[in-house]
Amino acid sequence: MLELKAQNVTKHYKEKTAADHISFTLKNGVYGLLGENGAGKTTLLRILCGILMPDKGAVTLDGISIHKMGASYRTLLGYLPQDFGYYPDFTVKRYLLYLASLKALPRERALTRYREMLKLTGLQEEEKRKIKHLSGGMIRRLGIAQALLNDPKILLLDEPTAGLDPKERIRFRNIISSLGHDRLVLLSTHIVSDVANAADRILIMRRGKIIEDQTPDALLQTASGHVWEVTASPQEAEAIQEQFPVCNVRTEGENLRLRILSRTCPSPHASQVQPDLEDAYLYVTENREVC
Ligand SMILES: Nc1ncnc2c1ncn2[C@@H]1O[C@H](COP(=O)(O)OP(=O)(O)OP(=O)(O)O)[C@@H](O)[C@H]1O
């Protein structure tokens, strides 16, 4: 099994530290890289791809620097950047076969993989359509199809669900879940539900640092006992929101039902509830502010 290792990876853009002494080891499975916009996810993925050199630290595959591996690393890699480049006037078929030739796939193999990828991503009916006529969701699926053409053992996906509607999102998640068995998939997103079911491990990134690296169950455990719900009048709700991080608010008649993070019981009327991953993510990222 492959072992992709980041050791003390650090990257600065002038005074900004986008990756700050990041270390982890990834093997086969699906990993969710969660973090708000600007946390440093794209920078980290570009470093893991070998497109960007870290200022400090190293990325190794089975103990060998990915930069030393060069082309042999790239044959193992599939990458879907946030804005992947495509040619709007190409048809789906022309585009994927063109990408297959860039990845140096022999003709027969290219055609087989092309058919398999169309099926996996549900784009069979679109093969003759020009990319400029596809929906945003179809284009994202085309992106994953191109990233998978060479059957990569390492698949890095940068915000693959950005801009998708809920139905496309679910479809995408199902594709991702089916991929992680015999490869390493790292998926970056700022949307917790994108990785809640699919990820074997969740890495949370904040201000260039990996602040958590846990299984979803362990992450839920972290927030256990710290999530509460309370019904409050709009005035009371305002006071609560000033005091505690609020995960969710919903209207209940004239009142509001608040879901809040607190280490101790925040009000005599509050009841403790089981955390979900959204709560746990907020708990971890807002930890210093949870009283
Ligand atoms: N080429 C660059 N020059 C200067 N600063 C940069 C550059 N690329 C990224 N940054 C900064 O580094 C930080 C991390 O950016 P990065 O794009 O890696 O984060 P991200 O988590 O992927 O965010 P997003 O989801 O918005 O893309 C941000 O503050 C960003 O403004």
Automatic annotation (TrEMBL):
GO molecular function terms listed in the Swiss-Prot or TrEMBL record: ATP binding; ATP hydrolysis activity
Family affiliation: Belongs to the ABC transporter superfamily.
UniProt-recorded name of the protein: ABC transporter ATP-binding protein
InterPro entries in the record: AAA+_ATPase (IPR003593), ABC_transporter-like_ATP-bd (IPR003439), ABC_transporter-like_CS (IPR017871), P-loop_NTPase (IPR027417)
Record lineage: Bacteria, Bacillati, Bacillota, Clostridia, Lachnospirales
SUPFAM superfamilies (UniProt xref): P-loop containing nucleoside triphosphate hydrolases (SSF52540)
Entry keywords, A to Z: ATP-binding, Nucleotide-binding, Transport
Domain ABC transporter intervals: 4-232
Organism in which the protein naturally occurs: Blautia pseudococcoides
